[in-house]
Amino acid sequence: MRSEGVTRYALWLLACFVGCGDNPYVERMLEKMGPLEGPTTYQLPNPLVLTRAGDSVPLHATFGDRWTVLNIGGTWCAFCRLEMSELQSLHEAWSDQDTRVVWVALDSPEDQVEEWVRRFGLTLPIVHGPSGDEWGRFGSAWLKGVPRTFLVDSAGVARFFVRGFRESAPLEPLLAPFLSGELSPPEGP
Questions:
Q1: Which residues pair with 149 in a beta bridge?
Q2: Domain 36-179 adopts which CATH fold?
Q3: Could you tell me if 100 and 63 are in contact, meaning their C-beta atoms sit under 8 angstroms apart?
Q4: What is the per-residue pLDDT across 1-19, written as a single tens digit (0 to 9) for each?
Q5: What average pLDDT does the structure give for the chain?
Q6: What HEC string does the chain produce?
Q7: Angstrom distances, CA of residue 163 to CA of 63, 151, 175
């Protein structure tokens, strides 16, 4: 019975997003969620993460010398699945220019991540994030849903973020001006 109620609520919520037009409730909810993308100066936390080899390392140790495109997601996330080929393409296009693309997998069953590595032909660095309670200590930027993508400088400061999946607007055109040096990220912290 509980799942029937959840299904009804999910369908109602979907109907509101798709068909309710100027629904003030939906507008307030979207406003609370904040922008979908933009400049930022958020100092990223440095929790311990697990490499695929099983080593425990600080998150910042996985970063590149110049830029890191840090994506947070999970194999259970349908939108994360849709981003995988683009993340792999970014890795292939930018890795020879002192830029790293790192995927933080929030999955605990490592075999699910390994299945994705095989299915999508992933060669980009992948680390397993800490448990949900540990992520919770590091600030709301981590907790507003996945996928979540940050453009991080060599000091561990996020300079640009993208929240959610962008089917109609891929990540590379947003990030390329920063990666190539055409645009400077915001100054901060």
A1: 71, 162
A2: Glutaredoxin (3.40.30)
A3: yes
A4: 444 444 444 444 444 444 4
A5: 77
A6: CHHHHHHHHHHHHHHHHHHCCCCHHHHHHHHHHCCCEEEEEEECCCCEEEECCCCEEEHHHHCCCCEEEEEEECCCCHHHHHHHHHHHHHHHHHHHHCEEEEEEECCCCHHHHHHHHHHHCCCCCEEECCCHHHHHCCCHHHCCCCCEEEEEECCCEEEEEEECCCCCCCHHHHHHHHHCCCCCCCCCC
A7: 20, 12, 14
Tell me the whole-structure pTM to 2 decimals.
0.77
Q: Name the pairing type of β-strands 56-58 and 157-163.
A: unpaired
CA-nearest of 92, 149, 145 to 120 is 92
Domain ranges of the chain: 1-33, 36-179
